[in-house]
Specification:
328 residues; 6-stranded mixed sheet; 5-stranded mixed sheet
Length: 328
Amino acid sequence: MPRTVCSRAIRAALLVSALACSAGDPGPAGPGPTPPGGGGGPGVPDLGVNAGFNGYRPFPDDNPWNTPVDTAAVDPASDRILTSIGLDLTLHPDFGTNPDYGIPYVVVDGSTAPASVGFDYSGESDPGPYPIPPNPPIEGGAAGTGDRHVLILDRDGHRLYELFDARPVSGGWQAGSGAIFDLTSNALRPAGWTSADAAGLPILPGLVRYDEVAAGLIRHAIRFTVRRTRRAYVFPARHWASSSSNDSLPPMGMRVRLRSDFDFSGFPPQARVILQAFRTYGMIVADNGSDWFFSGTSDPRWDDAQLNTLKQVPGRAFEVVKMGTIVQ
């Protein structure tokens, strides 16, 4: 896939046109034996759409998504990069009670029949097959025109299957790209490869889910987007999606964290849990999109009023965590 594409939305639009002419805190690193029936158990996700994880955390404890960064050094370019994103722009939770927002997922077991998937970007996609259940949730709905992500967690196989621009077709599915992740491993995508996300990262481990907020603790970094990125990526990302060499722009995979001097004690409970995750684990740039939009799942149990208080938090409340080697 060309590395100079500026956004997944643009890639999708171009495709339509063309068709027409890697030590975390203590916690379970992987699911134990799956009990019979649909329900999970301690450390084993339930089955179904947006199912509870019961304390399960995808990937090992020392995976980049699960590694605390609250004591990491600040990157020397932090001020410059945050200025390019927007110091006075504010956070936006891109999820809530409205089922039209958020990125859904489904948990399946080993009995789910495999489905064949064809890919538009087959050179950077894992061929599968993919255990797609009947009528899986699609981001934006069955008639959605956005990224149309389909995320599937196989709790028995300990695998995560993710598709971008997924559409059912006769005899199977067609997608823009697809990636399969071994949830017991820290293995990354091949260098330069995308995934179902522009940065070549998994999506599900970076979503804010209701069950973990209700439990009072998020134990992973959170996925977020910015409008403009650099033609570069930094660990754990593997892919860029820009043609700009401006070093004031963030590379894919860059991580920010909430500053230690930002007082969020007055925020409501759901917001406080999320803000603590921003301070402990931070947010990772995963795609081009609206500035400071962070991802989660739709759930009728969210309190939208509480989530909306996060829109008071400005970009200047964050700092860029020191980056490693920047690939460009």
